[in-house]
Amino acid sequence: MLPDRNKRLARQIRREINEIIRDNVSFDTDVIFTVTDVVLSADYRHCKIFYSLMVFGDVASSRVEEKVSRKLEEKSASFKYILGKHMRIKNIPDLSFFIDRTPARAAEVEKVLGEIFKDEK
Length: 121
Prior knowledge:
The protein is 55% helix and 21% strand. It contains 4 helices and 3 strands; from the N terminus they run H-E-E-H-H-E-H. It has a 3-stranded mixed beta sheet with strand order 1-2-3. The chain is globular and about 60 Å long.
């Protein structure tokens, strides 16, 4: 029963955090922000939020990632407060944000595989 509750709560937090960030944070550059995963501790007091960024334009993506990361950490307490207003749970978890580089790595692997198959033909 516990793992199912953990999964449901993580999905709900993921939806809420996506909406909270969409409504309350504006990024200076052309960025697509997506929460990719939420991992809750067993006691529901800590929450790791993994996100991915897609940066458009001539801006260096590492600089944008650093700026977004800093902004998210600065606003994590207000996100927790808003999350507490939207959800009916006893303890609102502390939020920590981590960048998820999986989509970027997958794109690189796909590009390399495409070049390999092109060379074989």
